[in-house]
Write a structure and sequence with these properties.
Blueprint (H helix, E strand, L loop, with lengths): L4 H9 L31 E6 L8 E6 L2 E2 H9 L8 E2 L8 H10 L7 E8 L10 E8 L3 E10 L11 E3 L6 E4 H14 L4
Antiparallel strand pairs: 1-2, 2-3, 4-5, 5-6, 6-7, 7-8, 7-9
Length: 193
């Protein structure tokens, strides 16, 4: 239908906005009055049974936000050699000292930070080969994995003292209850005291 130009203009003038150039968005409800609280977004962490790249059988792996930790690190660093690393929490290491060191550092006391070996090379299953370290801190409600890196120390007992940190990998924040559940599954499944 062909409307005369004058009629078209009158119809536009009846629009509640009048013109596009004069229309202003409404910003109400976006927190400018302090009614909305700031909420910390939590990541998810869990232990799941899976078969890693080089393992013959299923074993517990660590998943962050539904992604296996070894895959996440390999993807983020661009180094596929990390794909297939296994959690040091598995209690597969021959050295009792290395197992104990991992469990001592995985959940520090509130206000402390520890560099904990979290993934190890599946070939050697010890701290003499490649070890991925995570910087872990704890507060009353959460556990924070601040950053990840490749251990560069020379002795087993020095693991985590010299670390080549990966840029842009972390932090990850977990609810303390969920973190404790993940650790309990590793303890139960691998008979850790």
């Amino acid at each position: 239908m062909n409307w005369p130009q004058e009629s078209q203009n009158k119809m536009l003038d009846r629009s509640p906005r009048r013109s596009v150039t004069k229309w202003k968005p409404c910003w109400r409800g976006l927190g400018q009055h302090g009614r909305y609280r700031t909420q910390v977004l939590m990541n998810t962490i869990r232990a799941t049974l899976s078969r890693s790249r080089f393992a013959l059988n299923e074993h517990l792996i660590i998943e962050l936000d539904s992604m296996p930790l070894d895959t996440l690190i390999a993807t983020q660093t661009g180094d596929d050699d990390f794909n297939g690393f296994v959690p040091s929490l598995l209690n597969w290491m021959e050295s009792a000292l290395e197992c104990e060191l991992t469990w001592d550092r995985i959940k520090p006391e509130i206000g402390e930070t520890h560099n904990c070996p979290i993934l190890i090379c599946p070939d050697d299953l010890d701290f003499d080969c490649a070890v991925i370290v995570v910087s872990v801190s704890t507060d009353e409600k959460s556990v924070r994995w601040n950053r990840f890196g490749l251990d560069c120390s020379h002795k087993q007992t020095d693991v985590g003292t010299r670390v080549d940190w990966f840029p842009g990998l972390g932090p990850y924040v977990f609810a303390i209850e969920e973190y404790d559940t993940m650790l309990a599954l590793f303890r139960e499944h691998h008979e850790v005291r």
